[in-house]
UniProtKB/TrEMBL annotation:
<feature type="domain" description="WSC">
    <location>
        <begin position="242"/>
        <end position="339"/>
    </location>
</feature>
<dbReference type="InterPro" id="IPR051589">
    <property type="entry name" value="Sialate-O-sulfotransferase"/>
</dbReference>
<dbReference type="Pfam" id="PF00685">
    <property type="entry name" value="Sulfotransfer_1"/>
</dbReference>
<dbReference type="InterPro" id="IPR000863">
    <property type="entry name" value="Sulfotransferase_dom"/>
</dbReference>
<keyword id="KW-0677">Repeat</keyword>
<comment type="similarity">
    <text>Belongs to the WSCD family.</text>
</comment>
<dbReference type="Pfam" id="PF01822">
    <property type="entry name" value="WSC"/>
</dbReference>
<feature type="domain" description="WSC">
    <location>
        <begin position="138"/>
        <end position="230"/>
    </location>
</feature>
<dbReference type="InterPro" id="IPR002889">
    <property type="entry name" value="WSC_carb-bd"/>
</dbReference>
<protein>
    <submittedName>
        <fullName>WSCD1 protein</fullName>
    </submittedName>
</protein>
<dbReference type="InterPro" id="IPR027417">
    <property type="entry name" value="P-loop_NTPase"/>
</dbReference>
<dbReference type="GO" id="GO:0008146">
    <property type="term" value="F:sulfotransferase activity"/>
</dbReference>
Length: 574
């Protein structure tokens, strides 16, 4: 009996060990499988693998005979470089909810890890950091200085990169625009200027780590880490290439009152005047004979009414320019900073305003104009990491916080529309909108889709789905919107100041004329595709044109039915 019991006990022990090893093997195999699957999802997100599925269209009016609607995607889906750039793309191998959920979890893990690392690994002393900067970066580390975002000490161009800012990136950006100094603040903001700040701070007060460069110091709270970029400028491209000819204009009656700085120089050249005005940190260089003036666009010199260039003889050699009534105007690399300061609303807005548009209709550009005109950030129903990293700080604020002047949205469902008290409805030519959104979908905010993309099956599928969305978006907002200001992209582009004034008044904000002129001087922003890339083929087939033209006529009729002006003539029909 005892022997039998011993055998049973021995057998059970073996079973226990066997179960333990099987459990361990199962857990290891599961972990490896999870890691492999995560890597596959990441690879698909980084490649941006296209899919034949287009974004779903919103609710549509049955009387127009459009395709069956489907709901839009998760409005808080992250699309920055840390996560999948397009949840609507590359979903052939993984379900949508899994990819978006994995993206959010990866983002949360990264944030927790960086916070934990910064708590566990305090920054080295500022003196050691300064020596490290001097060794690793071109230019000389000048020290730590006080910084006020409203009354800036470096008054030139401003750049943001809230994820990848480094000392080298800031230096290069300032050097390309012919500035002498580059200053970094808050770990992610870059300021340029030609005058060294006067108020120095303690070295240890510059303690913020650069977002894109571990172990490097990028200023601090109201503190600037300042570098000289003179060594970079020696190898930079010539200043003349960064100077833009604005045209020939009638000179104001009193130039010395209109322009704060001036220079009289025999044999004056464009380079001499531009260099002088750049060092004085003015965006305009104005030349009349041997006289050089520096300043800003103002009410007395708005640059809106140019004259025949022949009145200013010799546009390349300033000394031969006509004296007296006319002058040559050049834009220097210096940024007009009279309208670059922005902030969140100090109190919650009582009126919840949407900035609504179809994708590709210029919503980002309109936000740039509104932010610089009003001085307040705009929000977004979504989160776009690329926009946030370039200074649209309202991207990260919850869209219902009411701390932003208006909220970007592409939604067009009845429920989503009725959440807003009023809206600016931005409309663009559907042919241009479809091409712009297709470019963004396959090449980001600044790139172009390849010829292979245009000739693939994705393009006709895209047009079939998105053309109806373009129409239904306008129709639904006309039907359910409570208080609307309709703005046509083409009108805004053609008559910027008058249309921008309408938008600002609709938002119940008072702005100065000088601030609007500053916006006009900085009208393009950071997300304008350089040039208009011409296709060597017509992307729209006759069948596509017939479809789009029907939607154009329907929307035009609906606008007039609501006592709005119809679509611009250039829309109809191609």
């Amino acid at each position: 009996m005892a022997k039998a019991f011993f055998r049973l006990q021995k057998f059970l022990r073996r079973i226990q060990f066997l179960l333990f090893f099987l459990t361990a093997a199962y857990l290891m195999a599961g972990s490896l499988l999870l890691l492999q699957r995560t890597r596959l999802v990441l690879q698909q997100g980084s490649r941006g693998t296209p899919s034949n599925q287009a974004l779903p269209v919103p609710e549509e009016m049955s009387r127009v005979g459009m395709t069956e609607p489907r709901s839009l995607q998760n409005p808080r889906l992250l699309v920055g470089t840390d996560v999948l750039q397009e949840a609507a793309l590359g979903q052939q191998h993984s379900p949508h909810w899994l990819m978006s959920r994995n993206s959010e979890l990866r983002q949360l893990r990264r944030r927790w890890f960086h916070r934990f690392s910064s708590d566990q690994e305090p920054l080295q002393t500022a003196g050691l950091k300064a020596m490290k900067h001097t060794a690793e970066h071109k230019g000389t580390y000048m020290g730590c200085f006080t910084h006020d975002s409203r009354e800036r000490t470096l008054k030139g161009a401003v750049f943001y990169d809230l994820r990848k800012m480094t000392v080298g990136h800031c230096q290069e950006a300032c050097a390309e625009r012919a500035y002498s100094y580059a200053g970094l603040a808050f770990g992610a903001e870059c300021y340029c200027g030609n005058t060294l700040p006067a108020a120095a701070a303690k070295a240890e007060e510059c303690s913020s780590e650069c977002k894109g460069e571990k172990g490097s110091v990028c200023g601090g709270l109201n503190r600037l880490s300042v570098y000289s970029v003179e060594q970079l400028r020696a190898g930079a491209r010539p200043l003349r290439r960064n100077v833009i000819y604005r045209g020939c204009f009638r000179a104001p009656e009193n130039l010395t009152d209109t322009f704060p700085a001036s220079l009289i120089q025999p044999n004056l050249t464009v380079e001499m005047c531009s260099e002088f005005c750049s060092k004085k940190e003015f965006p305009l260089a104005v030349i009349r004979g041997q006289e050089c003036y520096c300043g800003y666009p103002t009410r007395h010199f708005s640059l809106r009414e140019g004259t025949d260039g022949r009145r200013c003889s010799g546009s390349h050699n300033a000394s031969s320019a006509a004296g007296g009534d006319y002058c040559l105007v050049y834009q220097t690399p210096v940024q007009d900073t009279r309208c670059t300061d922005r902030k969140f609303l100090t109190t919650k807005s009582k009126v919840f305003v949407a900035l609504s548009s179809f994708p590709g209709a210029g919503n980002t550009w309109a936000r740039h104009l509104i932010e610089h005109a009003t001085g307040y950030y705009t929000g977004s129903y979504y989160f776009d990491g690329a926009l946030y990293n370039k200074g649209f700080k309202g991207e990260k604020d919850h869209w219902r916080s009411r701390r932003t002047i208006c909220v970007k949205t592409h939604e067009s469902g009845k429920t989503e529309i009725e959440m807003f008290d009023s809206a600016i409805l931005l409309i663009r030519n559907p042919y241009k909108s479809l091409m712009a959104e297709f470019n963004r979908k396959y090449a980001g905010h600044l790139g172009y889709a390849t010829d292979r993309n245009w000739k693939s099956k994705e393009w006709p599928d895209f047009v079939n789905s998105y053309a109806s969305w373009w129409a239904s978006h306008v129709l639904e907002w006309l039907k359910y919107g409570k208080r609307l200001l309709v703005v046509h992209y083409e009108d805004l582009k053609q008559s910027l100041i008058p249309k921008l004034k309408e938008m600002v008044e609709f938002l119940n904000v008072t702005v100065t004329e000088d601030r609007l002129l500053c916006v006009e001087n900085n009208r393009d922003g950071n997300f304008k595709r350089s040039g208009a890339k011409q296709k060597n083929f017509e992307p729209f087939t006759q069948e596509m044109k017939d479809l789009i033209n029907r939607y154009i006529l329907t929307v035009d009729e609906a606008l007039k039915g609501r006592n709005f002006s119809g679509l611009p003539r250039e829309y109809v029909p191609r």
